[in-house]
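Aminotransferase DegT
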Amino acid sequence: MTKQIIPAARRYFEPESISWVADRIRKLLASEEYLSLGRYCEVFEEEVRRYIGVKYCAVCGSGTDALELILRAAGTAGGRVIIPVTENPAAALAVIRSGAFPVFVDSLHDFSPDPGLVERILSREGDVRAVLGFHGGGFISESVEELRRLCNENNVAFLEDAAHAFGSMLRGVKAGAIGLAAAFSLYATKVLTAGEGGLVTTSNQKLEGKVRTLRNYGLENNELTEIGLSSRMAEAQAIIGIAQLRTIENNIRRREEIAKLYEERLETITGVEPIPKPPSLRPNYY
């Protein structure tokens, strides 16, 4: 018997979007334009910025790079960063690569760090530089407000790992506009994909400038000011990302329809409990 496997990376592209992407890439390859960090990357950054509702967006090479960039730009080196145990290993790797030490805490039922445990660590351990909130599965925890308050009171940066959560909203505020800065992944399985790539969103001008310097070796005005990354996005990736972004709400609506079917059937199974979804949350159902 042949097993039918549902592809984990099935993408949502409307036919018009595929034609648009193919046409733009064809023209790009026939031109003399830069093939990375060019005008399409700039358009992508601007459209993401407006969609999320922040002042700045910077593209980069991957979601892991985006995490490292915001951690480094937030000044976590030499300190501690609190992350939930439900995180992808990439989060701990990004913390270590940024020069900080990861401190793991248990999470709530919705993947987010337990605020009570975070408060205990902040009161007992010195030199905590950041708390990393994780929007697992596209679910933004209602506890983010409590986490942000704790961070503000203790002069600690609240950062978002929004890799799963592009388009998710809590009380009308989108993931990526909640903390000091956020990191998104554009990997093949994500709701918004460019095949590969990452995004940083923030409304902090100083942090955004630091991210742009760090993503390109640490170069500022053609002078090497610090040791950075080689984390540029290709123009072809940006073109795919733009096409995806322009149909993102259709994509999420379709995911909501499918999720409802799962919820209706799973609730009949004893012992299976879905993640609670408060009325104020619109997840993207990653």
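thats it. The chain has one domain: 33-282. Residues 124 and 150 are 14 Å apart (CA to CA). bye
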